[in-house]
Amino acid sequence: MKQLLFSLTLLTAFQSIFAQTNQDVSFYIGASVGSAFTLGDFKEADISNPDAGFAKNGTKLDLFGGYFLNDKITLTGTFRYQTFDTKIEDLVNEFNTETPNANFSADTDSWQVYSLLVGAAYKINVYKKFAIFPRIGIGPMLVNNPSINVSSPDPAITQNFIRSAESGFGLGYEFGIGLTSNLGKRLALMPTFTFSGGIATISDVTTVADNIVVNGNYNVVVQSFNLGISLAYKFY
């Protein structure tokens, strides 16, 4: 599925080379679905790293809009939902390697990230039938971290790892480029290629490692590279 989305996005980018953008449009609204590739500590699965997010590559869904101030500058708004499964298999394998025959198993949930981003895009003409739109956005972000529970059924085994599921707010951002390929008067493909993320403080997260309990704030840095297929409706 992700390979298909990637291929379709590249095809859309190629098609936009031959499409003429229409600057008589007043504003547009649309939706996008695609992939979110995790970056930095957010994707790390090292239990000794307190900032590790254990996050796999995930998916994203955008609801977006734009208002043309002039033929160069567009005000943009995006509501983004992202979900990331956790690398729970890596943790289980690490524990079973360190303690053979302990039969460690795990339970976990997924990361849920909600962002509301407001920003701007600037049109750069490459030549008469092709333009790119560098864009930037910033706004509030809500993060739900997954619960993680790795343990052994053997009561003699004290090795374990537990992290409670909580929610926290932070500041989100995105930056990247967008393309436009018209599908007639009203519809347009508007793929974007953006880095997004933010910093959120999740309070009262309980972490247990080898039966040592720590309760405190979890300052998570969410980072991902996003791409997908976007369809927009234009208003004149």
UniProtKB/TrEMBL annotation:
Q: Which InterPro entries match?
A: Beta-barrel_OMP, OMP/PagP_B-barrel
Keyword Signal tagged: yes
**What's in the keyword line of the UniProt record?**
Signal
Q: Which Pfam families match?
A: OMP_b-brl (PF13505)
What's the domain of life for this entry?
Answer: Bacteria
The Outer membrane protein beta-barrel domain, residue ranges: 8-229
Name it: Outer membrane beta-barrel protein
Signal peptide range equals 1-19
Organism (species)? Croceitalea rosinachiae
